[in-house]
Specification:
3-stranded antiparallel sheet
């Protein structure tokens, strides 16, 4: 019985932890290139940030499709 209570408490703690985790917000711009796939690395909130990361690589920056086609 004691083992059952321990397992139950561990599972309850895990469920509580997982239910409070929020996904990272996607940025407005995506770093796009052959190594990134589609839509690319969408962590950039400004075009300047994206262009700085793309500098010196064979990548470009574009608007995140999820942002561009979001319902308002």
């Amino acid at each position: 019985m004691r083992r059952f209570v321990q397992v139950f408490m561990i599972l309850a703690s895990f469920v509580a932890l997982v239910s409070t985790v929020q996904p990272a917000a996607a940025g407005k711009y995506c770093l796009q290139g052959s190594q990134w796939g589609f839509p690319g690395n969408c962590q950039f909130h400004s075009r300047r940030q994206c262009m700085a990361t793309a500098s010196g690589t064979n990548s470009t920056c574009g608007i995140n499709p999820r942002y561009a086609h979001a319902r308002k």
